[in-house]
Design goal:
Blueprint (H helix, E strand, L loop, with lengths): L11 H8 L4 E2 L1 E7 L2 E7 L3 E5 L2 E8 L5 H7 L1 E6 L5 H8 L15 E3 L5 E3 L4 E13 L2 E13 L6 E4 L2 E4 L5
Antiparallel strand pairs: 1-11, 2-3, 2-6, 4-5, 5-10, 6-9, 7-8, 9-10, 11-12
Length: 171
Amino acid sequence: MTERPPLPALDAKTFWRTLGERATGMTVVTAQSDEGPVGFLGLSASHVTADPATLLVSIGRSTGALAGVLSRRHFAVNFLPADAASVADAFAGKAGLSGAARFAAGEWGELATGAPVLNRALGAFDCRLDEVIERGDVVIAIGTVVAARASGAGEPLIFFRGRTIAGLAPA
């Protein structure tokens, strides 16, 4: 068998530009910490399996919410509605807010674990943290869903090609 030469590494700019070609629903990932509620804008939330219901999220190592997720062993994934751009901005750090101050951008409740859930989220999953995988500059948190809520109405807030789009059709 002929040995192949090593493949070149993909540069980060090409990686992010290509990934931007995939439209994705915007989520806010939250947890409760010893200092109060924490959260961040998460574009990587994904299902793993339905049996048992399991999700994963990628959390940057420099994200302040990481400590809350790891210490309390839970997280919630909130699917943002089209009219929640201000919530997305707050949790993306665009509004100059950090920590618990970000939660002023919406009305919050909880389902089972104590992780904050946006009352007007299109859907929300509340998860118990089961596994952590360290990879590069992120921690991949895998959790079993312990509670869920779906609104059944409304349009999603979408991220596509570096911009936020309210609803399913570009404006």
